Structures are given as structure tokens and as C-alpha cells.
Fold this sequence. Notes:
Blueprint: E1 2-6, H1 11-19, E2 24-29, E3 35-36, H2 42-53, E4 57-60, H3 67-72, H4 74-95, E5 98-104, H5 127-142, E6 146-151, E7 154-155, H6 168-178, E8 181-185, E9 189-190, E10 193-194, H7 195-208, E11 212-215, E12 222-223, H8 224-235, E13 240-244, H9 246-249, H10 264-268, H11 277-287, H12 293-299
Helix pairs in contact: 1-7, 2-4, 4-5, 8-11
NADP nicotinamide-adenine-dinucleotide phosphate is lined by residues 7, 9-13, 29-31, 37-40, 61-65, 80, 102, 104, 132, 151-154, 160-162.
Amino acid sequence: xxxxxxxxxxxxxxxxxxxxxxxxxxxxxLDGGNFPLDICNFGAVRLLISxxxxxxxxxxxAAACNVPRCETQQDVxxxxxASAAGNLARVCHDAGSRLVHISTDYxxxxxxxxxxxxxCETGPLSVYGASKLAGEHLIKAYCSDFIIAxxxxxxxxxxxxxxxxxxxxxxxxxxxxxRPEVRVVTDEITTPTYTRPLAQQLRxxxxxxxxxxxxxxxxxxxxxxxxxxxxxxxxxxxxxxIESTVAEFDSEVQRPAYSVLENRFAKTQxxxxxxxxxxxxxxxxxETGRLSPEYxxxxxx
Length: 301
Ligand SMILES: NC(=O)c1ccc[n+]([C@@H]2O[C@H](COP(=O)([O-])OP(=O)(O)OC[C@H]3O[C@@H](n4cnc5c(N)ncnc54)[C@H](OP(=O)(O)O)[C@@H]3O)[C@@H](O)[C@H]2O)c1
């Protein structure tokens, strides 16, 4: 299988390359990979996919995903997350390549109280969410063989390039090391999702999944406060953790208060392999060497 991963040096792109390391793997990115590529450049995308490579699968992990920045750079957000996704879909359709595209829980708005399935009504609250939803629509319009994978709150060993290298786990550990107390919101509920199992799940669906929109997150749900608590417990970090609210942070960006996704489409095909978020967090901390010995001995038989 010949694969092209776009956005290969990003947080998720890195893990995708690892998940496909036994395939014929090609990588593209704005400033690196085998092929330097700006996905907004339609001619360059067409040349690479239709003429040079003709891959069986194109995985698009490239995005403008700094949520506050998208509010002030709407043209960039829609160019990268929407128009470029649409152009990729047209090129993939013409070249006979399957398109695997990463989307987000932020296509949803307020009001949900139970896990959202792929058929639930969307209603983005931010420019980022709206641009990603527009990208989904364009892919569905132009391409017949696609996987649109909506995920949420991802973290992994590779830095998130759009967020200055930070992910929530690293940010919490950094704050705990540099401040006497850490405030975290209790009124935003999501499912933290580790990129390693996510990339393995994406590989399985790339090879065996039917065309369509998928929700792909770890299992379970928690507030950011509960996630921070789990991080500090598992790493043995001593810090004063204080409950806070979204209103106290006075953010200019609106995010859904509850955006828990149910991986229904993958489950109906018997293809859901995502672990619980707590199990995934422990795996991440163990792999990055931060799991405390006390936690290990108390939780392993
Ligand atoms: N981070 C999250 O919590 C989260 C949650 C839900 C969904 N997602 C989705 O997951 C996917 C991966 O996100 P991530 O966290 O891995 O982001 P990331 O670390 O910022 O990686 C994105 C990659 O895309 C590249 N890129 C940006 N614009 C490009 C362009 N015009 N042409 C080619 N490459 C371009 C970036 O290159 P440069 O760094 O050089 O700009 C970077 O390598 C995205 O679709 C995102 O919307 C993320």
C-alpha cells in the first residue's frame, strides 16, 4: 500500500508515520517531509498526487488548528481547513486515492448532554469549527472514497505545532512545576485522546473501514479538571489544583461545553479499538517516562 501523509511533522502526523512504517510511506509538510507541500497550492497538490505519486491513500493531518488564532485569521483558517481539503478531495477522487481527513469535535455546539454520534446535528461555535465543518462538506461533495475522522483533545509525544509545541498534559506539568497553584475548568467535558492509539485506529479504518464520517476518540469522558487530576495523580505531582469555570478564564473563543463523541460507525463495523482515556494517559506517561513508581506499584499486579 502506497501512503502519503500530509502534515507529517505535526503532533498526529508523526504518529501516523509510525503506524504506517511498514507501508510504502511518503510524507509531505509545509517545510519538510519527502515533499515540501502547501496544501493551499492546488497545482502542487495535483502534481504530487495525480502525477508523481498516485498513492492508494492520502492522509491529511495538516490543518490550521490554533483555535484562538483562527478567530483573527479567518482567511487562513478557511483556506487550509476548508478550501484545501476540498481541493485534496477533488484530486484524490480523480487519482483514485482514498482520502483520510482529520476533523474535530468543535464542529458541534452547545446543548449536548450525551455522547454525540456521527449523525448528530452540527453547529460550530468558532471559526476553527466552522472551517473544519466546511472542509467536511467539500470532501463529501467531491470525493466518493473518504474517511473523515472527528477526534478531540489530542495529545502525543510529538509537539502540537499549532499550539507552540504544547499539549494539555505537558502544559499541566509545566504549570505545576512553575506555579504554586493551577486552575482548571470543571465545566468543559470532552475525551482526551492519545495520538498513538488514534493513529493505530486510523490505520485499521484506512485498510478496512467503509467510506464515511467517523467519531474517533478514546472511551469515557471527563472535565479538563478531572483530566488534570489524573495527570497529577499518575505522575505523583504535588500541586494545589483549584476548580475553575470557563467564565473565569474570559476566553474570546467559544467552545462546546460538552463534546463527547461516540465512535458508533467504527463500532457498528466491529472496528473500534480505542482504549479508555485513563488507560491511554497511563500509556503516554509510561512511554514518556513520567509515570510515578508509587502509581505503578499501586496499580499493577
Ligand atoms: N490538537 C487537538 O487537540 C485536535 C483536536 C481535534 C482535532 N484535531 C485535528 O487533528 C489534526 C492534527 O492536528 P495536530 O494537533 O497534529 O496539529 P499540528 O501539530 O499543528 O500539525 C499540523 C501540521 O499541518 C501543517 N500545515 C499547516 N498548514 C499547512 C499547509 N497549508 N500545507 C501543508 N501543511 C500544513 C503544519 O505545518 P507547520 O507547523 O509548518 O505550519 C503541521 O505540521 C488537525 O486536522 C486538527 O484539526 C486536533
